[in-house]
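Purpose: get a first structural picture of the assembly so the mutagenesis plan has something to point at.
Setup: three entries, given in the order below. No constraints added.
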Amino acid sequence: DALDDARAAGLIGERPDGYVDAVQPNPPGNIQQLISEINAQRRKVYQQLAGEKGVPVEEVAALAAEKTIAQRLKPGMFYMNSSGQWVQK
Amino acid sequence: CNPTVKVEAPDKPIVINLNVKIEQEVRIKVDKDVESLVNNNPNLF
Amino acid sequence: KASMTAKGGYDLGSGKGRFDLDLPEVTFVPGGLQPKDLAADLAHTTEDIAGTIAAKGPILIDKNGVTSQIALTLKNLSGKLGPIALRNLNSVVEIDKPWPLTTAADQIVSVELADVGLPLTNGLVRFKIDDGSTLSLAESHLEMMSGRVTLDPVILKLGAPAQQIHLKVDKISLGRLFELFAIAGLTGDGVLSGEIPVTLFPAGLAIDHAKLEAGGPGSLKYNQAQAPAAIANAGDSVKMALSALSDFHYDRLEVDLDRKATGDTELGLHISGRNPSFYNGYPVEFNLTVAGRLDEALRKGLAGYQVPDMIREKLKSSNQ
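Result (structure tokens, whole complex):
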């Protein structure tokens, strides 16, 4: 799907706060569009789960980042570490 | 926790390591829900 | 409801215009009116805002464009600004250009609490905003655990994937650190200084290997009676390890601190010294690591605060 293709191409990476971002500065229009769509949908599901469980939304989002990086990213895909640097799995 | 106590040679200090993990049930529950959220929405995560 | 009036005119011939803006006090309420209702591009940077704002001053138009001399009053604003939770932020901001938002230089904001994974209190931060996207922070001073915190000057790009701010910490109280991290039963004298790098993400933050050290020798006391359940009913070796800490005189003490975006925090305490009644004072090196959602402890019990006089004067004068 679009997200995995963009991640495989090294254009999109996972941030520790639970959202995706462009790995290279000023990404092409379609990537920017994909990023905003993915983040908007994620924000919605995070707020819903956080509301149900009564925990801060930041915690749900950051936990999702940990799970996504551990279980969804394939080797070579990008994620951001605690120092804010992009690294490859 | 798994503390280890080693009594070393006289000139060396006694080294004591102690690791304490403070678990929270709320987190364990949320952890599972987030895991299913991520794995049940493959095009989003 | 928020209603703003702008009285003035624009001369087509000369291309000059002036509108006197007056936005009487507007109150934000979580779940009610929010800043993003007034300015769309604040949608993702502010959340659950409470407090009041007001704005007054001329907007001037000439051939070079639009400038202004607006005083924007922020009174007891609380809520989330990006990843940082703020409490009682007060300022009177001089706005030189409304679009894109640009302030005059050297603006000052006072804030009772800024939670960057650790509670920074009683802060006075000097800043300037340029083109609605760049926030320049000059060297600013805050407090933490009865010690001083200096924020190094930094230029933050709003919406950047990640940015780091550096906090230099001077003489924070070891006792307050233990209290804050709710390590029940552990008390100590002595002060710590060092560096705390904080990585800011648009919707989260991490503490990235903070390192603090004791300025000189001191003492630690661990009262096993107050130990949390996890420790109290642990094995004998734990009890024996802790008896070493019952009255520990350290000559070296180092604290490492890491906080992930999830809130999971790991506090490492590395001390060397001795306890007179433990192997009759034989030298001991003690490495204690406490890990877990320690930031929960941070949310409770933080001291109150008064708005510094300088800001209060400005608040009064601008509301006449």
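The helical segments of chain A are 2-8, 29-53, 57-72.
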